[in-house]
């Protein structure tokens, strides 16, 4: 064995080391496979919006309590929306809802329309739904809004109380 | 090398030693370098850099820790290192979709990650520190991560009861029951009911051999080329309950011969009152009159019929009983009369109520069914079947057991084939190595395995005995989710105490009411103290809500004022005596503890109160947005035009104070009325009466 053979062997061994690096395996990227809820939804006819747990709960509450007036059709058939003046906004009406802050939405759902200077036909839900559930409904409305909802920019450093 | 040179250190060797030492040191150095470049450390550094770009850097870095993070919950065997890379998981400020993964915070869920860890819900490998090992299946790690799409399956491995938050899982469990999976398989949380499919002990008296042949070859509900589910050629939402077994010609002949020979309870033709027969026999409108009666009795509450309107044929009606469009070509007319008079006489577990038939109605309706609900082409593709041969019957009897028919169908003298198929109670927790993929090309993953097995059993195992089902994509997903939930007993010891069991108490009252309750099968549609079904209003507290006389009127002549709702209460022809028994029982027993009927006296309702209530109703609270009085108002809540005759004042007051206290699922929100407002509204609503109250009734709706 000559020095040269040793050298060559060593260099080959060193060269083999990069092969030990592991390649990470990609997790499937289909957004719907990562959604909690992909069931049929009138507010998202194309079925493209992946909903997370909170938004899915909002959707469930919407179809239970809100759909009767905030949609043009209901699980029981016709909607009550046409009976009301002024007509309540549709759930996915981004043009009407995107401008309202989360706090305003939380308040009008909790306290009802008359408390916020809007139609008294919107009843208060604060004693029927929990604050958590109302937050879920708002997050759902934000998820399905057309045009899409853009959250307001965060002001300065935040020290969340949570 | 010459011998004299041994032990002599040459310069060349010195050089060699020096070189190999250098190489050795270099090799040793590789290990720490490699360690520095570990996958998780790269994520750690990336996170540190990412945190610098956030407005709340200080807070993010305060929670940062350069080593491996883990959530350790010894009593649940949880060692989850996921937070090593998913570092922003518990940072509320990283919730935006703009935050790159794996740093985004977890969307709000009822269980906090700190208390439960990650693997409990997501599966995968908690202790792993590499992306592939944590998420995917590798040789050493067997449990891949559960796609979020199916994550409700993980909810179900602890929550055995139906949660509102997991609709997909609940639907899947419903489907497992609906398709009678428990007929052949052992399934967690689903017990075998008394009857899964019709008892076939006397099937030979009901249908012909030809019909049986056709049914076995191609059950009524099929899937067409475009993937639509069809019942008798009409598109439907319903999935087939009787699946298609892959039977060949001799098998079809054998089974149809055997089944048609089963006639242990012969049917005696019913003797109609000769006066009825004489009066109706020759009438040209006998069949039309029968159809009118059929509709009036609300048979379609439970049974569907194909109806053609404006050129479009649709199935209309309920799915509690079988679809009846062609039943006239199926059943023996004598059997039909016997069945309608006493369904439980033929099938003790039948859900069909025992109607009070007059001979006249029975004559008209059976003639309508056998004359109109027919199809002359029904048996066109059935070959000429000769007389039943003894060897065919022999073969049929053998096949009945070999094909697992006795898994679902009861037959006198044949023991039920429980556990005919594999035990599925632990399927959701199976590792890939425990699944039989055979020669198939299915991706090696549990979800893919379950879906292939359910959609095309022969694709996994060509000799599969499992019949063919036709599932819509959404149902397939729900069923998969429910099967994934069957993860056996939770393995981690601490989780035993977390399992929420399913509880359901049967409500079967005794006495005269109990008899009528069983006869009219009230619980097939209504719910009583948690037992029954949700098709019709819950009657647990009906005695507190409805006036006794109103109940009697409703039972005698059920009607609705609301055309927008599907009204389903059948006309049972209940005699006065029975209506009184039912109304008495309801008013005395089905009471809510929150409603004290004696607490409110109608005499307190002064005209001032009434007019104030009207003001509140119309102006302050605008109740008309959801309720109708007379001809105006919304139709979310019940019509209140007859509220005074319908509801007790005590109920109205209790309801206004807290609707959810009386009916937890009701849509009406709980308000903050003052006591005076409650009194005034109750006073106003109690004055709302309709002159023709006897025949008009309103019912809670929208549920």
Helical content band of chain A: 25-40%
> How much strand content do the residues of chain A show?
under 5%
Question: What is the CATH superfamily classification of the largest domain in chain B?
Answer: Cytochrome c-like domain
Please bin the fraction of helical residues of chain B. 25-40%
Uncertain residue segments of chain B:
693-703
Number of helices of chain B: 28
Quick one: CATH class of the largest domain in chain B? Mainly Alpha
Structural class of chain A: mainly alpha
Say what oligomer this is.
heterodimer
Indicate the CATH topology of the domain at 50-151 in chain A. Answer: Cytochrome Bc1 Complex, Chain D, domain 2
What is the terminal-to-terminal distance of chain A?
69 Å
Q: Name the CATH superfamily classification of the domain at 50-151 in chain A.
A: Cytochrome c-like domain
What's the arrangement of strands in the largest beta sheet of chain B?
3-4-5
Assign the CATH class of the domain at 50-151 in chain A. Answer: Mainly Alpha
Mean pLDDT of chain A: 80
Question: Domains counted in the coordinates of chain B: how many?
Answer: 5
Specify the overall morphology of chain A: elongated
Q: Strand content of the residues of chain B, in percent?
A: under 5%
Give me the count of strands of chain A: 2
- Structural class assignment of chain B: mainly alpha
What is the CATH topology of the largest domain in chain B?
Answer: Cytochrome Bc1 Complex, Chain D, domain 2
How would you describe this structure to a colleague?
The complex is a heterodimer of chains A (162) and B (703). Helices cover 35% and strands 2% of the residues of chain A. With 162 residues, chain A is an all-alpha fold. Chain A is elongated. Helix content of chain B is 37%, strand content 5%. Chain B has 28 helices and eleven strands. In chain B, the strands form five sheets. In chain B, strands 3-4-5 form a three-stranded antiparallel β-sheet, with no helix packed on it. A two-stranded antiparallel sheet of chain B has the order 1-2. In chain B, strands 6-7 form a two-stranded antiparallel ribbon. The longest helix of chain B has 26 residues, at 11-36. Chains A and B meet through helix 1, helix 2, strand 2 and helix 5 of A and helix 1, helix 3 and helix 6 of B.
């Amino acid at each position: 064995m000559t020095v040269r053979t040793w050298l060559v062997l060593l260099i080959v061994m060193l060269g083999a080391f990069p092969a030990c690096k592991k390649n990470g395996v990609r997790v499937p990227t289909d957004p719907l496979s990562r959604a909690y809820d992909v069931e049929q939804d009138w507010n998202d006819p194309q079925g493209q919006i992946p909903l997370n747990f909170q938004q899915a709960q909002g959707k469930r509450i919407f179809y239970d309590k809100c759909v009767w007036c905030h949609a043009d059709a209901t699980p029981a058939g016709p909607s009550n929306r046409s009976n009301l003046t002024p007509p309540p906004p549709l759930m996915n009406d981004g043009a009407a809802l995107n401008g309202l802050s989360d706090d305003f939405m939380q308040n009008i759902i909790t306290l009802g329309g008359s408390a916020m200077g809007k139609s008294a036909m919107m009843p208060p839900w604060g004693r029927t739904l929990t604050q958590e559930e109302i937050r879920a409904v708002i997050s759902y409305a934000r998820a399905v809004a057309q045009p899409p909802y853009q959250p307001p920019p965060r002001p300065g450093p935040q020290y969340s109380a949570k | 090398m010459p011998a004299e040179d041994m032990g002599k250190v040459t310069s060349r060797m010195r050089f060699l030693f020096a070189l190999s030492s250098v190489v050795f040191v270099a090799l040793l150095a590789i290990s720490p370098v490699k360690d520095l470049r570990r996958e998780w450390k790269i994520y750690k550094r990336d996170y540190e850099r990412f945190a610098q770009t956030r407005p709340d850097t200080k807070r993010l870095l305060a929670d940062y820790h350069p080593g491996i993070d883990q959530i350790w919950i010894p009593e649940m065997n949880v060692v989850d290192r996921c937070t090593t890379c998913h570092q922003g998981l518990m940072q509320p400020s990283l919730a935006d979709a703009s935050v790159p993964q794996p740093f985004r915070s977890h969307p709000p869920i009822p269980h906090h990650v700190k208390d439960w860890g990650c693997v409990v819900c997501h599966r995968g490998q908690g202790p792993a520190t590499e992306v592939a090992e944590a998420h995917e299946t590798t040789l050493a790690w067997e449990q891949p991560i559960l796609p979020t799409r199916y994550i409700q399956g993980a909810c179900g491995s602890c929550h055995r009861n139906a949660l509102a938050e997991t609709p997909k899982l609940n639907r899947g469990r419903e489907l497992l029951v609906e398709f009678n999976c428990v007929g052949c398989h052992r399934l967690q949380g689903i017990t075998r009911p008394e009857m899964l499919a019709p008892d076939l002990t006397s099937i030979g008296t009901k249908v012909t051999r030809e019909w049986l042949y056709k049914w076995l070859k191609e059950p009524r509900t099929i899937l067409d080329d475009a993937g639509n589910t069809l019942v008798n050629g009409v598109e439907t939402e319903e999935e087939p309950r009787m699946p298609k077994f892959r039977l060949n010609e001799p098998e079809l002949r054998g089974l149809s011969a055997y089944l048609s020979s089963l006639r242990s309870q012969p049917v005696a033709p019913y003797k109609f009152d000769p006066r009825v027969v004489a009066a109706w026999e020759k009438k040209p409108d006998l069949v039309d009159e029968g159809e009118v009666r059929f509709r009036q009795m609300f048979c379609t509450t439970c049974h569907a019929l194909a109806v053609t309107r404006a050129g479009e044929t649709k199935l209309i009606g309920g799915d509690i009983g079988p679809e009846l469009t062609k039943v006239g070509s199926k059943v023996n007319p004598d059997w039909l009369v016997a069945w309608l008079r006493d369904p439980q006489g033929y099938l003790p577990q039948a859900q069909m109520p025992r109607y009070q038939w007059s001979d006249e109605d029975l004559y008209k309706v059976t003639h309508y069914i056998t004359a109109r609900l027919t199809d002359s082409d029904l048996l066109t593709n059935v070959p000429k079947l000769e007389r039943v041969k003894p060897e065919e019957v022999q073969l049929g009897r053998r096949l009945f057991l070999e094909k697992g028919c006795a898994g679902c169908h009861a037959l006198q003298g044949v023991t039920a084939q429980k556990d005919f198929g594999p035990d599925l109670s632990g399927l959701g927790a199976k590792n890939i190595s425990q699944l039989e993929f055979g020669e198939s090309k299915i991706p090696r993953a549990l979800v893919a395995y379950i879906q292939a097995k359910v959609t095309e059993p022969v694709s996994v195992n060509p000799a599969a005995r499992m019949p063919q089902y036709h599932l819509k994509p959404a149902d397939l997903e729900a069923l998969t989710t429910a099967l994934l939930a069957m993860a056996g007993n939770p393995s981690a010891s601490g989780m035993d105490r977390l399992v929420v069991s399913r509880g359901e108490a049967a409500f079967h009252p005794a006495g005269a009411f109990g008899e009528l309750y069983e006869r009219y099968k009230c619980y097939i549609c209504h719910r009583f103290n948690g037992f029954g079904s949700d098709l019709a209003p819950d009657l647990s507290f009906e005695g507190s809500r409805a006036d006794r006389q109103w109940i009697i009127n409703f039972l005698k002549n059920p009607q609705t004022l609301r055309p927008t709702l599907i009204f389903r209460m059948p006309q049972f022809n209940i005699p006065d005596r029975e209506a009184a028994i039912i109304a008495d029982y309801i008013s005395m027993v089905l009471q809510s503890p929150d409603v004290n009927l004696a607490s409110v006296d109608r005499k307190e309702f002064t005209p001032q109160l009434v007019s104030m209530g009207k003001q509140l109703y119309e102006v302050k609270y605008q109740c008309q947005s959801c309720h109708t009085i007379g001809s105006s108002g919304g139709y979310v809540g019940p019509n209140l035009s007859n509220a005074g005759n319908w509801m007790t004042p005590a109920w109205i007051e209790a309801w206004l104070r807290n609707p959810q206290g009386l009916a937890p699922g009701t849509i009406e929100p709980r308000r903050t009325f003052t006591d005076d407002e409650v009194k005034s509204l109750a006073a106003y609503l109690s004055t709302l009466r309709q002159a023709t109250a006897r025949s008009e009734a309103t019912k809670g709706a929208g549920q």
